Fold each of these.
Amino acid sequence: MANRGLGQFYPASSPLHALDPRAKIVATAVLVLGLFLVDSIAGFLVVGAALAALVAISGIPPGAFLRILRPVAFIVALTVMFQVLFSREGATLVEWGPLEVHSGGLRLGSFLALRILLLVSAAGLLTATTAPVALADGLEHLLSPLKRLRFPAHEVAMMMTIALRFIPTLGEEAEKITRAQAARGADFSEGGLLRRVRALIPVLVPLTVGAFRRADELADAMESRGYRGGEGRTRYRELRFRARDALALALTGLILLSGILA
Amino acid sequence: MRLELRDVFHVYAPGTPFEVEALRGVSVAVEPGEVLGIVGGTGSGKSTLVQHMNLLLTPASGEVLVDGVDARTVERGELRRRVGLVFQFPEAALFAPTVEEDVAFAPRRLGLDGGEVRTRVRDSLEALGAGHLAGRSPFALSGGEKRRVAVAGVLAMGPEVLVLDEPTAGLDPATRGDLLALILGLKAAGISVVLVSHDLDEVAEVADRVCAIERGVVRAVGTPAEVFYGAAEEDLAPATVQTVVALGEAQRGVGRPVRFRETLAALEALAEG
Ligand SMILES: Nc1ncnc2c1ncn2[C@@H]1O[C@H](COP(=O)(O)OP(=O)(O)OP(=O)(O)O)[C@@H](O)[C@H]1O
Ligand SMILES: [Mg+2]
């Protein structure tokens, strides 16, 4: 029931955890965008192997990491199925009644699946090795040049920190309410789609009410402590971009380039 | 009905760095018609323990028995009805537009007909002194009123065992008094009650037996006199004595008299004559 996989920080002391969050954010962004240029099995293998190596370095047990991928497995399976069944490109491989599988469809489908899986892995590795606060700090730094264009970099980063901070809380709350309703006989697994959605109402209503109450409390607490937005704020944690961060970025570029050229 | 937990272990988030062994071999029974108090410090595993009683949580090992048979063989909805569980801060799960509809949720899920549902809603709201709230929105009630409604929502299932997880936490004296009276009323009607509480006085007041739990292990089971008196005599693990006593004091906070020792004295007097 509880989805503790996606986006959760996994505390450990590894070289990846120690990197500057900015380096990790940029590297992930570059990798994610670059993945769309990779278009050969060999290329995906190169990137996949590199990511596997990074997971090994990160100190996260492979089993726990694979759990990150579980929530997207369904979406991946679905997109692949559509690609494979509805694309009429290339030679016909299988014909079965109205269903036809063509080589082009198979190729597109598997590439899409690999792309999504690698993309989610890269993003998952970022959030698993970077504490939420560090992530928000890094993002604020990266966005700060936009401040001159009146882009509210601090506020966006603050919102992200708060959201990240409250996602686990909200998840716990949802789990608790779900169990409380189950104790009153609610059943979330029976019936068709409509019935299941309706069964969620007793969970979603109190969850929303609670979230608004929490937001109110937080706003009061921030105001009473004199929070006044980003103007003239000094920061508690300073980020430092070191040689190893530059190295990490260079390495990412190299992996990607070999993936694209392979 | 007799409910028994036998050598129950429970692990949260197994196989991750967040792994917590919340119960470590807990054995305890709820005898038919008794009030069983469960006491222990914060994080000792009380809530985890009671959620095993209707299998909202399943044991990593060990078993839960309903009248001697494995609870997993009892149909799930049936088990949840027979063992009514009121969560800690149950008002967090109120959701319907009116109090009436909220309390009707569980009886409706049981598939009862409209008349029976209405009777049950009325009766359980009455039992909690909340009959006059029926038409109100549960979100616009006071804390104590919400708690009453939430308890009524479980009582309306007609449970054979009612499990209350810290039902009096953060309540005004009037609501707290009413809840304790309800517990004794249920007992008189032959319904077993499990009362989880930080308040040793109230446990001593209504419980037939007490189970003291500490870091997932049962430290003592017996009558309040045995457990609290024994604890005071330091016959039991000193850590439990500390938990039990500290708990009583911490719960009272600043400015309120510590009645635990008085309770002990009274229990002692009782035991002697
Ligand atoms: N959903 C959960 N995930 C992980 N750990 C949990 C979860 N729920 C409880 N725990 C942990 O299990 C242990 C026992 O928790 P439990 O809630 O049963 O204690 P409790 O005795 O009810 O405490 P309290 O008096 O504060 O309500 C604690 O260490 C707690 O941190
Ligand atoms: Mg608890």
Amino acid sequence: MATITIDEQQYTVEEGRNLIDAAADLGIDIPHFCYHPGLAPDGNCRMCLTEMEIRPGQFGIVTSCTIRIKDGMNFRFNSPAVLDNRKGIMEFLLINHPLDCPWCDQAGECKLQDHSFDHGRGHSRFVETKRVPPKKDLGPHITLYTTRCILCQRCTRFCDEITGTSELGVVQMGSKSEIATFEGVPLDNRMSANVADICPVGALVTKDFLYKPRIWHYDKVDTLCPGCATGCNTTLEVLHQKIYRTKPRHNEAVNGYWMCDEGRFCYHGWQDADRLQAPLKRVDGELRQVTWPDAMDAAVSGIQAVLAGEGDSAMGVVGSSMATNEENYLLRRLGAEAFGSPRTGLDRKPDGEAWTSKSGFHIDADKTPNTRGARDMLGAGSPEDILRGIGDGTIRGLYVLGGDIGRTLSSEETDAFSKLEFLVVHDVHRSDLAELADVVFPGAIPFEKNGTMTNAQGRVQRLSPAFPPPSGAREDGAILRYVGQRMGVDLGGTDPAGVLEEIAGNVDGYAGLTYDLIGDQGAMTGGEGPSEAAGG
Amino acid sequence: MAIIVEARKMTLAERLYLPAVIKGMLLTLAHLFRKKVTMQYPEVQKVLPPGYRGAHRLNKDEQDRIKCVACEMCAVACPADCITIEGMETEWNDREKIPRTFQIDMLRCIFCGMCVEACPEDAIDMTDDIELVATSREEMIWDRERLLKNYDETKDQEGTLGQVLRKSREAFTRPRGDQLPDPGGH
Ligand code: SF4
Ligand code: SF4
Ligand code: SF4
Ligand code: SF4
Ligand code: FES
């Protein structure tokens, strides 16, 4: 800890911390453009100039972003020299800036707009013609509005320091300087869209968000990316029950300030899926839309028929790595209590391409968000176990939590599942799996779920719904409870926080976990292990 | 607890009522000889003052193209929250964005004129068209085409709200950079 003086007031802050961050912790905003806490300081924009005591009684102008706190430092943030400098820098930055805020997508979250409102002079003394370089297509996701760029070089440093791919650079000199890609090398790394987030102005924009409704319309929902087992923390921007944009949410232990492009744009696939609007039941070999009570009757009588046949574990259950811990846990309980110690399994194997960036950001090969959590909840069953069980006739009925739009069936799986006497599936669209089922319950997509998921590191994190499922569909937990009720098993209340409490009491590694403890940054499993084995 | 208020006793003249009736008739009679304030609407139309806040229109530029850039400033300013805009890309190279849809719910509008004041592009305006009649609620939601049509119908009008506001704004804005006195020095 160090004691520093800011405008003649004493504060205690962490030694070695960056001055801009330290001031932010104290609630003091030092205007800046080029500094980003996720990148090394560069000191090029000069917006953060403040006065520091360099010799006793003598102050000099310094860039705050390159200052690390030491005991006894003395700053002036609001002296005439500082304010004057700031005004001057603002004026320089706006020399060639078009100030086309009315149709700039950054308006409302633009640092240049905010700072020129707070520190600018309100009118321009620049009478020469502004430079109007054309906009550039930098890569599959990103467009550069060259006129708006203030050359803070956050984007180039991102490509150097974080991805290590160095696609972006500055070409030309002086007032002609421009951000550019090399000939024939587009900005197409797997995290490229992050540059639009960190660009302090509207120069770099994602093509996906261009011309969309203004940013102040959106409701923000903090949740997780369902794109892979890394479980990046995200904030969704939602309007009229539709997601318009995903942004990474800072979590140092998981994703830092970043997320990958696949994950960022994956909401389209989910949102545009042709969703099931009502339960389906097989009538005369064909799936027909039926009412909920009808589908429930069919499911329960089908399951009871299988259970009435010979063999011990006639029904199997298959959990889903797209479902929350709570849903998988309820499935396990339904299996154990209503179907009688069934075999369990888990959907989908890793099928993506893993990638680790220069800075250590990891995209997992497992393209589902909750494989680890589902396994923790369900025990060690694997898809092969289930297929073998069907093959040797010990599993004649199956209850599957589906809801994975990226999942297709292999030919062995199709063969095996067609052999089943009875198949119940939760799904969100008419997938391969749903086509084989006897009863399909329309469930929720990850963006509609409330609960927790466990990422590949074993970090349990919260998921919040952006909107409710379509009117004909239900949350998977509610469906499981309903089925349980019809089979005489009470699976408890509808509150996911309550289910988590139950999980904390019963599942290895989850002891002591609560919503409060998980908060918005998650909590690791395996804090203090409970004595019982998984599932009790 | 009840409070008993005793009614004032009326005088004989008051109880007769006749003096009051005669007073009223005299007033009516006097009006017959004064200047008329009513008019034969709709045969005769009222001349409205400049800056009147009647029905909206979406202005067009010299090339007959919509001026609006879909910035949604009007929608933000609107206290009745009755403007809905959806943007799209244009192929004109002097502009980035224009509205795909632009709706004003005239039933919700309170004709305050804030939208006109907020517009940075002089694209939305209010005219002296006060005859807002429709036979359904849907018809009262004016879309982009309806608002542009209103421009064609009223483009000759002098003294729309937008023009009045612009004039007063010009009178009050600070000089531009090139009009400032030379700061001196180098
Ligand atoms: S494009 Fe944005 S991030 Fe890159 S230098 Fe310009 S202003 Fe900075
Ligand atoms: S790395 Fe994984 S969790 Fe993170 S954004 Fe990409 S797909 Fe989503
Ligand atoms: S006149 Fe007022 S209420 Fe009507 S659209 Fe404009 S801002 Fe909204
Ligand atoms: S009418 Fe004016 S304020 Fe409204 S969106 Fe169009 S340009 Fe913007
Ligand atoms: S933030 Fe310090 S110089 Fe740019």
